[in-house]
Amino acid sequence: MWYVVYSQDVENSLPLRKSARSAHLARLQQLSDEGRLLVAGPCPAIDSSDPGEAGFTGSVVIADFPSLEEAQTWAAADPYMDAGVYEQVTVKPYLKVLP
C-alpha cells in the first residue's frame, strides 16, 4: 500500500538539511530503485523552485510499504531525523486515484 510521509522542519533547518542530504537522498534512491517510490521532495519556504537561503519547511514522500508500521519505522530512521531537521513526522495510508 502507498503511504504519505509528511515531515515538518524545525525553524532554520537549511544547514541541518545540507549536512544530511546525501544520506537522505540515498534512502530515497533505494526506494526508487526498488520501484516503491511514487514521489518525493521538499516544500520550499517561499513560492520558488529555488528558495535559496529561505530553505524549506518540510518534505513529502509517497512510497509503497507492506504496512503502516513499516512505513513509520522507515520514516523514523531518516537521516534528517538524526540531524534534527524534522520537528514532526506524520505517516498516513494513501490511495492513488489519479492519474
SSE order and pairing:
Layout lengths: L1 E8 L4 H20 L3 E8 L11 E9 L3 H9 L2 H4 L3 E9 L5
Antiparallel strand pairs: 1-3, 1-4, 2-3
Care to describe what's here?
- By secondary structure, this protein is of the alpha+beta class.
- Helices cover about 35% and strands about 35% of the residues.
- The protein has helices at about 15-35, 70-75, 80; strands at about 1-10, 35-45, 55-65, 85-95.
- It has a 4-stranded antiparallel sheet with strand order 2-3-1-4, covered by helices on one side.
- The mean pLDDT is about 100.
Q: Indicate the percent of residues in helices.
A: 25-40%
- Termini separation (Å)? 17 Å
Query: Per DSSP, what share of the residues sits in E-state strands of 2 or more residues?
Result: 25-35%
Quick one: biggest sheet? 4 strands, antiparallel
Number of helices: 3
Spatial order of strands in the largest sheet: 2-3-1-4
Rg calculated over all Cα atoms: 13 Å
Number of strands: 4
Q: Please state the overall shape, judged from the principal axes of the Cα atoms.
A: globular
Q: Give me the strand/helix succession.
A: EHEEHHE
Judged by helices, strands and strand pairing, the structural class is alpha+beta
Mean pLDDT: 98
Which stretches are low in confidence, meaning pLDDT under 50 for 5 or more residues running? Answer: none
